[in-house]
Design goal:
The protein is α/β, with parallel strands linked by helices. It has a domain of 129 residues: 3-Layer(aba) Sandwich (Rossmann fold). 45% of the residues lie in helices and 13% in strands. Helix 1 links the parallel strand 1 and strand 2. The longest helix is centred in the last third of the chain and has 21 residues. The structure holds flavin mononucleotide. The site of flavin mononucleotide has 14 residues, from helix 1.
């Protein structure tokens, strides 16, 4: 099984999210292929005039692209196929300003491509990831994106770490949830 971990951990060694991610990795079976995409090291591409025109002409208009267009959209295609080819995707990021950090949304904007992660059917969009769903926009945005891509099975693990008094309890609860998910998915 191929696991893709998409992470954005700007707190580095002080990151609680990294702690939970390490906990998860320490608990799953060891023989999985794990690919880690660190968004800090691989800043996701933002669509520009050329790449957006290429995307619309190719993925919606069915047109062949010229070399300049192919070059412009290539970084998005690479990320989209990496995402598509994973059997399990793990996102690890902190909540920033009641939502997912901007760079994670930029990543989603790069990977969510018509005909790769969704298709149009009877004038409706249908997600193609039919392989695997919290008062905060972080979950809402992610839930909308995952549902749109057709994910059937997904879980959110949230640990509120802003308060020194309650942090330990929240992290311990999150670890329990991770163990429950690992058991449920037999990872
Ligand atoms: C710029 C910024 C915005 C934040 N916004 C929120 C927020 O909206 N809600 C929240 O519960 N915590 C918020 N926090 C607290 C972080 O989510 C918390 O410190 C978390 O531990 C960060 O994850 P990390 O330790 O993996 O970096 C924010 C922190 C920062 C630095």
């Amino acid at each position: 099984m191929k696991i893709l971990i998409v992470k954005y951990l700007p707190s580095g060694n002080d990151s609680y999210t990294a702690e939970l991610l390490d906990f998860f990795k320490s608990r799953i079976k060891k023989f999985y292929t794990i690919e880690e995409l660190d968004l800090l090291e691989n800043i996701p591409p933002v669509h520009n005039l050329v790449s957006m025109k290429a995307y619309k002409e190719r993925n919606f208009g069915g047109k062949e692209l010229n070399d300049e267009q192919k070059k412009a959209i290539e970084p998005m295609d690479k990320l989209s196929l990496q995402f598509k080819n994973a059997d399990l995707i793990v996102f690890a990021y902190p909540m920033h300003n009641f939502s997912i950090p901007g760079i994670v949304k930029t990543y989603l904007d790069a990977v969510i491509q018509k005909s790769i992660l969704f298709k149009s059917e009877n004038n409706e969009s249908k997600g193609l990831m039919g392989k695997s769903k919290f008062l905060d926009n972080a979950k809402v945005v992610m839930k909308i994106e995952l549902d749109f891509m057709g994910f059937i099975d997904y879980e959110f693990v949230h640990a509120s770490t802003g308060n020194d008094v309650t942090r330990k309890v929240h992290v311990a609860n999150a670890q329990k949830m991770l163990e429950g998910i690992i058991k449920k998915w037999n990872l």
